[in-house]
Each structure stands twice: as structure tokens, then as C-alpha cells.
């Protein structure tokens, strides 16, 4: 997500207001649940101008994308538009970021396609049920669960989804028919049917992809606008900016115009979009009598110091899906691409979503009859160019250089997602969890050999690591002749549990039987509190390694701390009593 994306409460320099909350607890709680109250009192005409431009830009982006993503979800095209406006209105009140836009996305559409069996009623019910789950997670403050999905898993999933979605559009790009949706069968049948390619669709699709690429490159390299520029240059800059920002809409309009021209002549070389239901969606309750599978995935990454309230976002997305199900929406989430458009357009508040939502409703009311002339190849080009950036080619090289072990969950997720997306995500998360637990169970240690062994724990000490630590100490100190004393340096140990206490007690007894000593250095106050409560026999504690070594070498003048409140340093006694 672009670095210009900021959460509410972190206004741009051109957007004064959104002052810090200094109200009482009750008022602060209300404003936290309704972020609109933080910026609405300071709303200005300048913000209105910027929000209108941004909302219009996002609207021109979301309309062709919504039509295209409905194809990915295996639903009629109007369902993409049904899913594109509710999030704009809900996020106005509940959203914690001025830039984020909610609506249909390529990855969510792919997930929906696995469970709806091309049946819109299933998709609508899925939106309601997933929204209820998201609302429950938000109210229970379960947003922290997102922290357990590692970056390699997310990258593996999004890269696999990009390949799956992009290759799934090759059939529409080439005008092929009767291609199955399962990825491996899709690859086989696509190459097998390559001789049946329709020249018209292939040419139009490639032309649309080239146009989209050129317009994107122009957008990325357009010079910033300066007030001292001449009016003619400013006008040209504005036209280029509009054309490149609304490139999806322009390319789809161009393709539809070409298809309509052929339709007038009585010859149609393109596969066209199926008939789109006209008018606004009816308001109705989801079909609860139908049976369906429930799958929910909430994924909103934080990049470039971009932070949002995960629990509040769950509430916003959950309510969007619940209310969206009443107007035939399928599940939606935050869109990275349209969020970038929103941010680059200079949006100041979530009010820009009002313009976007209104534009979608207007297109449903007056333009749906014209969507039939949009060639499928043009929508396929829009989808392919939209998901191409999701495939991160640099992540493999980066992980190889930074930490090669992280390639394991990445590759597991990436490969298994081609079989079943949910299995890929689950397997990747389990691999990441296993790596995390392995580090907990086998903490790193630094050992200094000598007459007295100094063993420093490089990380925390928890119950899975007890046996590993015991074996490491016994093999170095007590299984040699003569037995040697050990200094256990615990500066990095901030907490221990009862299993660790029992393991340390056994170690102290083993050393006592062999006539050697195990002493501790650098114990933090919480650990001292636990060991004091355990009343371990033979427990000895020193403030520094040097003092411990002098004592173990039986040099005069050094004594261990006696583990009682009276003999502990004064500041530690105070902390123990806290």
C-alpha cells in the first residue's frame, strides 16, 4: 500500500483538523466506534473538492473492475456492481482510514467462486454469514489474530491467487469456451484448446492490455503539478491525470465502442458480456433456507508505517457484508488497488466514498443495458493487469538473502493454493507456527567454556525448552569428569512458568548430587518473584557474571545474594512488592 495512505488521526499537511481526542472516556469510546465524529466537525470546502475528485476517480475504476470481478466469482456481471456501493456508505461512518475503499476484489472474488457454485443466492448468503463472523470478531477484539499470519504466508497466498486469477482469464482473452475452473484442469484444457483461439478476441484483448500498461506507465511517470506552471500545461497535466487514473473505464469504453460498431454491421468477432439485469438491486433478506459452506478471510496488510484499528475495520467490513447481503452483494473487503487510487487522488476523508457509491448506483440505474456490449476480452485484460502486481517476484530473492527458512511457509502456501486456497493458507500458517514453536522449544544459547561454564540464553525460557536446556547443561557440566560449575545468564528471560521452575529445581538437585554448583545471573524481577515463591533448594543469584565466577572459584570476598526480600537490592524489593 502506498506510503501516502494514512489512518484517520494522522492528517496530511494540507488537511488540518482531525484533532487528537481529549474528551472524556465515554466520548472517546463513541468517537472510537464512530470515527466520522472525529473529522466531520472540521470538514471544509477544500476537503470537499479533493474528496469529490478522489471519489470520482475511484468510481471510474471500480465500475469496470466490479463487472470483471463478478466473472472471477462466477456470477452475473450485475452482482459485481451490487457489491460495490454499500461499503462506500458504511465506511463513511465506521472507517478508520481516509484512503481505504471497500468493495469487490480479485482475491475475494476467487474465494467466493470456490463455494458458490455459480449460484448468486449462495454468494449473498455467504456475504451475510461472513459479515456476522467479522462483526463478532470486531466486538470481541480479535483483530490481534491477524498478527499470527506471517508475511511469507500472505505473499505466497497473494502470488498464487494472482497466477490463478490471471491464468483463469486466458480463456476469455483468447475467446475459448468450455474451460473448467479448477486450476490444473484449466491449464490442461487451455493449452489443449489453444487452436480454437478466436482472432478477434485475442487481438482486442492484447490491445487492451497494451493500452492499460501504457496508461499505467504514464501515470507512474507523470510530473507533479506546480502552481507556477502555465495554464496550458496545467490543463494538459489534468487531462493526462484523468486519462491515466480512469484507464480501466477508458479501455472498457473503447472496447465496447468497437464491439458496438461491429454489432451495427451485423458481424460480431468478440465474445460479449452476458445480459446484465437492469436497475437497482432489490432489498431482500438472504436465503437462509439454502445450505452453503462458510469461508472467511480478512486480510489487510500494513506496509510503509500504515496502521489502522484492526478491530474497527472488522466492524466496518462486517457491517458492510451484512447490509450488502440485503442488496444481493457477495463478500467484499478492502481493495489495495483502489485504495492506492484514492490516496493518489488526494482524498481527505472517507466522504469520497459517497461520490463513488453514487456513481455505482447511477451506473446500475441507467447504464446496465449498455454493459452487454463490453467484450469479455476487455474485462479479462482489466483483471490480468489488476492482479499482475500482486505477484511479488522480489520476495523470493529477498527472503533468500534475509532469512532462507522463511521460504518454507512461502513455498508451501504458494504451491498448495493451486490445489485449494484454504489448504494453502492453513498449511502455510501451520508451517509458520511450527517454526515459531521450534524457536520457543529450542532457544539459542551462547556458551563460554572454561573452568566455569557460562551459558547465556539468547531468548525467553518457556516450558517446551526445559528438556532442551537440561540436556545442554548436563552434557557440558555433569557428564564430564570432573563435573564443572555453571553460570546461567538469564538477562533475556522475562518470565517463566511452573514447568520451568520444576526443571530448574531438578537441575539444582542434580548439581548438588555431583558436588557442583548451578548459579544464576541477570534475573529480572518477574522471574525473581516466581523463584522466590517456589523456594528452590540451593538457589544462588549474583548480579554479574564476574561475581558468580569469583564465588565458584572460591575466591574470598564474594557471596551470593540470599533470596529474601531483606537481602535483595532496594529497588528490586520495591518491585517485588508492587
Helix count equals: 25
In what order do the strands lie side by side in the largest sheet? Answer: 3-4-5-6-7
* Gyration radius over CA: 31 Å
Distance between the termini: 44 Å
- The rough form would be described as elongated
Q: Helix content range of the residues, please?
A: 55-70%
Beta-strand residue fraction: under 5%
Q: Could you give a short account of the major beta sheet?
A: 5 strands, mixed
Structural class, by secondary structure, is mainly alpha
Kindly state the number of beta strands: 7
Average pLDDT works out at 81
Explain what this protein looks like in three dimensions.
The chain has 578 residues and is mainly alpha-helical. It has three domains: 25-392, no CATH class; 406-441; 445-577, Transcription Regulator spoIIAA (2-Layer Sandwich). Helix content is 56%, strand content 4%. It contains 25 helices and seven strands. The protein has helices at residues 25-33, 36-39, 45-72, 78-82, 86-94, 106-116, 120-139, 151-168, 170-174, 183-192, 199-221, 231-245, 247-265, 310-324, 336-344, 352-366, 376-387, 394-402, 407-416, 421-441, 466-478, 498-514, 525-534, 545-552, 570-577; strands at 102-103, 333-334, 445-448, 452-457, 485-489, 518-521, 541-542. The chain has a five-stranded mixed β-sheet. Strand 6, helix 23 (525-534) and strand 7 (541-542) form a beta-alpha-beta unit. The two termini are 44 Å apart. Residues 1-24, 290-298, 300-306 and 570-578 have low confidence and may be disordered.
Amino acid at each position: 500500500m502506498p506510503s501516502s495512505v494514512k489512518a484517520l488521526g494522522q492528517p496530511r499537511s494540507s488537511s488540518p483538523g482531525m484533532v487528537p481526542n481529549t474528551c472524556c472516556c465515554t466520548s472517546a469510546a463513541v468517537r472510537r466506534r464512530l470515527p466520522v465524529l472525529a473529522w466531520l466537525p472540521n470538514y471544509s470546502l477544500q476537503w470537499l473538492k479533493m474528496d469529490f475528485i478522489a471519489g470520482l476517480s475511484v468510481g471510474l475504476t471500480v465500475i469496470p473492475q466490479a463487472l470483471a470481478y463478478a466473472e472471477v466469482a462466477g456470477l452475473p456481471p450485475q452482482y459485481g456492481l451490487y457489491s460495490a456501493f454499500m461499503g462506500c456508505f458504511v465506511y463513511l461512518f465506521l472507517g478508520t482510514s481516509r484512503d481505504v475503499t471497500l468493495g469487490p476484489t480479485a482475491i475475494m472474488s476467487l474465494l467466493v467462486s470456490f463455494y458458490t457454485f455459480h449460484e448468486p443466492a449462495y454468494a449473498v448468503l455467504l456475504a451475510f454469514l461472513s459479515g456476522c463472523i467479522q462483526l463478532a470478531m470486531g466486538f470481541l477484539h480479535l483483530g490481534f489474530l491477524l498478527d499470527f499470519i506471517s508475511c511469507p504466508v500472505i505473499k505466497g497466498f497473494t502470488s498464487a491467487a494472482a497466477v490463478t486469477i490471471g491464468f483463469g482469464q486466458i480463456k476469455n482473452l483468447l475467446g475459448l469456451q468450455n474451460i473448467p475452473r479448477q486450476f490444473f484442469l484449466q491449464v490442461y484444457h487451455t493449452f489443449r484448446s489453444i487452436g480454437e483461439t478466436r482472432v478477434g478476441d485475442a487481438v482486442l484483448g492484447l490491445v487492451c492490455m497494451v493500452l492499460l500498461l501504457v496508461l499505467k506507465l504514464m501515470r507512474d511517470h507523470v510530473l507533479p503539478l506546480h502552481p507556477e506552471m502555465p495554464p496550458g500545461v496545467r490543463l494538459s497535466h489534468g487531462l493526462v491525470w484523468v486519462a491515466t487514473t480512469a484507464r480501466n473505464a477508458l479501455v472498457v469504453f473503447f472496447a465496447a465502442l468497437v464491439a458496438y460498431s461491429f454489432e451495427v454491421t451485423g458481424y460480431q468477432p468478440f465474445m460479449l458480456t452476458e445480459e446484465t439485469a437492469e436497475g437497482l438491486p432489490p432489498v431482500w433478506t438472504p436465503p437462509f433456507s439454502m445450505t452453503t459452506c462458510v469461508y472467511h478471510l480478512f486480510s489487510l496488510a500494513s506496509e510503509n508505517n500504515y496502521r489502522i484499528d484492526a478491530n474497527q475495520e472488522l466492524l466496518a467490513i462486517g457491517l458492510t457484508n451484512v447490509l450488502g447481503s440485503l442488496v444481493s452483494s457477495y463478500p467484499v473487503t478492502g481493495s489495495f488497488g483502489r485504495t492506492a487510487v484514492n490516496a493518489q487522488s488526494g482524498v481527505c476523508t472517507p466522504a469520497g466514498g459517497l461520490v463513488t457509491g453514487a456513481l455505482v448506483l447511477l451506473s446500475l440505474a441507467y447504464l446496465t443495458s449498455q454493459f452487454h456490449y463490453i467484450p469479455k476480452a476487455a474485462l479479462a485484460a482489466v483483471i490480468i493487469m489488476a492482479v499482475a502486481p500482486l505477484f511479488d517476484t522480489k520476495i523470493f530473492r529477498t527472503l533468500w538473502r534475509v532469512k532462507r527458512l522463511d521460504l518454507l511457509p512461502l513455498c508451501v502456501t504458494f504451491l498448495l493454493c493451486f490445489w485449494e486456497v484454504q489448504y494453502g493458507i492453513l498449511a502455510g500458517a501451520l508451517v509458520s507456527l511450527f517454526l515459531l514453536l521450534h524457536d520457543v522449544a529450542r532457544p539459542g544459547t551462547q556458551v563460554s567454556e572454561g573452568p566455569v561454564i557460562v551459558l547465556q540464553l539468547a531468548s525467553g525460557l518457556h516450558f517446551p525448552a526445559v528438556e532442551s536446556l537440561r540436556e545442554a547443561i548436563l552434557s557440558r557440566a555433569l557428564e564430564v569428569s570432573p563435573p564443572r560449575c555453571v553460570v546461567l545468564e538469564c538477562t533475556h528471560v522475562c518470565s517463566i512458568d511452573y514447568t520451568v521452575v520444576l526443571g530448574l529445581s531438578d537441575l539444582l538437585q542434580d548439581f548438588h548430587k555431583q558436588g557442583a554448583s548451578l548459579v544464576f545471573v541477570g534475573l529480572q524481577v518477574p522471574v525473581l518473584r516466581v523463584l522466590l515463591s517456589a523456594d528452590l533448594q540451593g538457589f544462588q543469584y549474583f548480579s554479574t557474571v564476574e561475581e558468580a565466577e569469583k564465588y565458584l572459584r572460591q575466591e574470598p570476598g564474594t557471596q551470593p545474594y540470599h533470596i529474601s526480600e531483606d537481602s535483595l537490592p532496594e529497588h528490586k524489593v520495591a518491585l517485588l512488592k508492587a
